[in-house]
Amino acid sequence: MVACAEILRNEVEKLVSAGVDHIQIDEPWLLLLVDKRHRERMGIPDIEREIETCVRMINDVVESAGATPTSVHMCHAHFARKRYADGGYEPIIEALADINVDRFAMEFAAPESHGVEVLSRFPENKILGLGVIDQIDQNVESPQLIVERVEEALKYVPADRLTLNPDCGFSPSAQNPMDIDEAYLKLRAMSDAADQLRKRHG
Ligand SMILES: [Zn+2]
């Protein structure tokens, strides 16, 4: 894991040199820890030790980002239009404060996230990337539904620290079929909802 962090840290350095506006890292492990079945499958008795390792590895990777804004994306993993894991963010929400990135892109449209109430403990020094599109569900969300999802989250995180994103990437492949028109319509609905929300909240 330490060897992988070294490779990613070098990539971050190169991205900064290239002048990118933002660097997002996909974190593949942290959120899976909330799922009891995953912990049993992997033989993980001590979640706190795992969380501490994840925080340390991410911080090692982003150390060289300097002033370039950074995000971490966390999801329940998906394949063949199914999510791998099930569980809310409660066991890991406090640890997010210790991760040295600016923003967290998290799944909240997913039923497997079990609601936004956990955001009452979202760290005050971070920006939330609120997942409002469920990329597993083939029904295209209406802008109204997305607005309602955001209004619910705004009870816990103020508008100036809240951004919108799909829960996860659409990542099409032979094993993970994803219709490009469906993805387009979902992103367009998110954009329409964002317009409405900007008018309402600035
Ligand atoms: Zn993801």
Walk me through the structure.
With 202 residues, this protein is of the alpha/beta class. The chain has one domain: TIM Barrel (Alpha-Beta Barrel), CATH 3.20.20. 36% of the residues lie in helices and 15% in strands. It has five helices and seven strands, in the order αβααβββββαβα. The strands form two sheets. The protein has a five-stranded parallel sheet. The protein has a two-stranded antiparallel ribbon with strand order 3-4. Helix 1 (2-18) runs parallel beside helix 3 and helix 4 (143-153) crosses helix 5. It binds zinc ion. Zinc ion binds at residues 73, 75, 168-169.
What is the secondary structure topology, with strand pairs?
Elements lengths: L1 H17 L4 E5 L8 H7 L4 H16 L7 E5 L3 E2 L2 E2 L19 E4 L20 E7 L9 H11 L8 E5 L13 H22 L1
Parallel strand pairs: 1-2, 2-5, 5-6, 6-7
Antiparallel strand pairs: 3-4
Helix pairs in contact: 1-3, 4-5
Bound molecules: zinc ion.
